[in-house]
Amino acid sequence: MISLGLYVHFPWCVKKCPYCDFNSHELNSGFPEEEYVATLLEDLHDDAPLFNRPIDSVFFGGGTPSLFSPESFDQVLSEAQRLLPFSEKAEITLEANPGALDMSHINGYRDAGINRLSLGAQSFNDQHLKSLGRIHSSDDITQAISAARAAGFDNINLDLMHGLPYQKWVDAEKDLMRAIAFEPEHISWYQLTIEPNTVFHRYPPVLPGESMLLEIYDRGMEVLAAHGYTRYEISAFSRSDRRSKHNTNYWQFGDYIGIGAGAHGKYTSDQQIFRTTKTRLPRDYLKAPNKKTTRVPESEITLEYMINALRLVDGTSLGNFEDRTGLPQVAITKFLEQAKTLGFIEKEVPGHIVPTNKGLRFVDEVLLLLD
After folding, report:
1. 364: domain range?
2. Which of 106, 155, 188, 324 lies deepest, with the highest CB count within 10 Å?
3. Neighbours of 332 (CB within 10 A)
4. In a domain, 274, yes or no
5. Structure confidence by residue, pLDDT tens digits, 121-150
6. How far are the Cα atoms of 79, 134, 189 from residue 126, in angstroms, in the given order?
7. What is the pLDDT of residue 226?
8. What is the count of structural domains for the chain?
9. pLDDT 10s digits, 256-293
């Protein structure tokens, strides 16, 4: 049975970060919380009949979901469980901004059923946080982690960026060591990239050169491994088998319901793969959470699968490729031969597609072989 996740999008932020290309909208005043939650439930009711299996994970993302009250999450989770069963030990993640997290709400989030907290720390250097347009400080991160632990959260992810403006290895190392000192179960450590349609794209900051980026990357990998964080995806590291179930489902080409303004979903039916997209602008979504459904053409399925699978350190099995895509192994024979010849994929792992370190570092180049 193909795994099933539920993604719920919250589109508002106190301030739009200059590097962010997500569907997030800066608040000029308040936001219609009750009306938005009611629309989310309407959206969920429309999508639920497409699926006839338990939900394995839930991810409340944004934007800044932590602007919403515990009661809102309780409503969404209660209705989701009424419509579709939750699997035993379902992972339920709330993405939170340390600068927009009401500490008095943390116990309520836990009581609502949220069992994993993902904190957007990004850096522990206040100057770097300012350059990234973040509204929180290093002290805010500390307070958020302490409050989460006190509330009983035993599964915390810290998001950290590297390759920040003017950053050197010594700065990146300090960020990593500060994060590791809190002993989070999971660390997402990824490089800042300049995306189209962002402030940073229009006004590019001064980023480290290639040699410094490479030094930060290589030495950072060593530090994380030395402190017990196992890399299982390009930018994801976990302790004690606390890999993100929700994100792993994406990378393994699982199905997921996507509700909320601009949310994306995926489902498999009769050996065909479909993508769903919801109305993007919050004001339009509130009027009607319309859904656009498109079938993924067979010519694009292999690329979509590999975009995800080749991010995983352990790769994927050929059997999983056949099960999730409905395509025969022969469809990727030429690609595998080329990728192995170029050193992007391990040669001696029968029945599996496992990226080499080179393949993980240059995954975009690997995918070009599918053109």
Report:
1. 298-371
2. 106
3. 20
4. no
5. 999 999 999 999 999 999 999 999 999 999
6. 40, 9, 18
7. 98
8. 2
9. 999 999 999 999 998 899 999 999 999 999 999 999 99
